[in-house]
Amino acid sequence: MADRAAGRPPAIFLMGPTATGKTDLAVALSQRLSVEIISVDSAMVYRGMDIGTAKPDAAILAAAPHHLVDIRDPSEPYSAADFAADTAALMAGIADRGKIPLLVGGTMLYFRVLEEGLADLPPADPEVREAILREARTSGWPALHRQLARVDPDSAAAIHPNHSQRIQRALEIYRLAGRPVSTLKREQREAGTGIDPLVDHYAVTRLALLPHRRELLHDRIAQRFRAMLDAGLIDEVRALRGRGDLGPELPALRAVGYRQVWDYLDGRVDYNEMVQKGIAATRQLAKRQLTWLRRWPGKTALFIDDEEGNPSEFQQIFTNCLKNLQNGPIYS
């Protein structure tokens, strides 16, 4: 169970926008493969936020335990840096137990931190980025990778020659700061403020549940939000609100659905407006997730519908998922 070429243990990223069935697929995989599930969801970390986060119920969690679920009180912020540190320790422990980390969720920022690390680096500069893109269009990304290797060999060694986003960002930082990104990150690690890309230590298979047509996803989102209301979402938010120490400015309560119900309980919107705003906010979340995933390098798409937008049977999606995994490092 290792990537013999690189000597790295395998890991699986199962990504996708909200309402695509990631949890169901992860649970099914846990019954077939020797995996441990790590939740990649910035809202599921909070206790008492179950219905609006579509958190797996007690029976599912008993059959397929999820790490990083119910680990924070809603009053305690949980950052991407917290997630990266917790996940690094969890993945190492899972690999030591001879199992495969299966990271499942839709918080794309968290996945990005695992892919790119976390450091206090110069912000993006549109002009510098456009200049690099022009060079890439002329010479190709492998040529820019060789350019990176000359100025920042450590970063180049950790980046695939076709990983355009990471090459672009590393060159951009070098041109803006005049120093290699690897040097900046090393200095920040030594100061206790930086985090390495975790994927450099694992052979990662990246799977993304995606729709051919957004109409299917929009319908699922509307149905699910109304089902959450039927299941008691308003009472869940009322209980959080009744604590007296929470407010809509906290990261936990900015999660989609919770903000809209909070406004409803405050009398700012009526019930029908709350429903429409909750559905619209969830669709906007899905749009942002899809935008991230469209340009995600190295991913394999698992479509939840056919090209006409007809939903696929779960067994078909599961079979396609297993076929893709069989071609990856977990079977090497």
Overview of the structural elements:
The protein is an alpha/beta fold and 332 residues long. The protein folds into three domains: 10-118 and 197-212 and 297-331, P-loop containing nucleotide triphosphate hydrolases (Rossmann fold, 3-Layer(aba) Sandwich), CATH 3.40.50.300; 126-190, Histone, subunit A (Orthogonal Bundle); 215-289, Helix Hairpins (Orthogonal Bundle). Helices cover 52% and strands 10% of the residues. It has 14 helices and six strands. The protein has helices at residues 22-32, 58-63, 80-96, 108-116, 126-139, 141-151, 153-158, 164-177, 181-190, 214-231, 233-242, 258-265, 271-294, 314-326; strands spanning 10-15, 35-40, 66-67, 100-105, 203-210, 299-303. A six-stranded parallel β-sheet has the order 3-2-4-1-5-6, sandwiched between helices. Helix 2 links the parallel strand 2 (35-40) and strand 3 (66-67). Helix 12 packs antiparallel against helix 13. The longest helix is centred in the last third of the chain and has 24 residues, at 271-294. The protein is globular, with a radius of gyration of 21 Å. It starts with 9 loop residues before the first strand and ends in a 6-residue tail after the last helix. The relative contact order is 0.17.
